[in-house]
Amino acid sequence: MAFDTLIVNIEDGIAVVYLNRLPVNPLNSKLYRELTQVAGDLDDDPSVRAVIITGSGEKAFAAGADISEIKDLTPVEMYRFCLVSLHTCSQIENIKKPVIAAINGLALGGGLEVALTCDFRIASDKAKFGLPEITLGIIPGNGGTQRLPRLIGASRAKELLFLGDMIDAVRAEQIGLVNKVVPSAELMREAKSLALKLAARPAHALSVLKGSVDKGLNMYLNDALDFEVKNFILTFASDDRKEGLSAFMEKRKPNFTNK
To answer: Which PROSITE patterns does UniProt cross-reference here (predicted)?
Structure first.
């Protein structure tokens, strides 16, 4: 795959997508459109079992929206830009496979909002996070006010949103914004290790499981419990369930066919 703003490598069933607008990978409309296309392509590719999104270089995952593109937009033009970015984030969030954000540096504004769409966030010890929009007289417009409270709770989210301050990787882990912090040199190795472990899980069950969690979060509890049971029955009817239980009884490694 050849893109102007991204680099995509696929190996051993793991796709690594680099946001590639050095030095700090600002997010413009072209990057969002290319990322939307990549997310759809990877979701449809049966050879891809897990996805990692990271930033090129050492300075940033993505340091927010490209101010040079948006600073002179009219409100109507900015709304159109937001529709593009919102579509991209929804496309990433709805990938049926596990998606890992490997956060190698600054994840600010729109960059953090992209990371919030991923299932896991692993951070370099040099990473910094923030939603500084309030300091510019605006608010986040790509999911920051909605996905962040759902992840870390309303009070802690408001602290980041209302103050607009940056936090380091240690604080991000303390509040549940990231799953794990590792030394910078080990970031991609750690992300790929997790991706390979996820790729070894039965793909059909993992896809149903991801949908159960993500969609269930937006339901009333009783509806979500009913949704979970229906999804459980889908997996119970699969060939992989038969293989998994047989392998357990026979004390051997299962050979899942993802059916």
So the answer is: ENOYL_COA_HYDRATASE (PS00166)
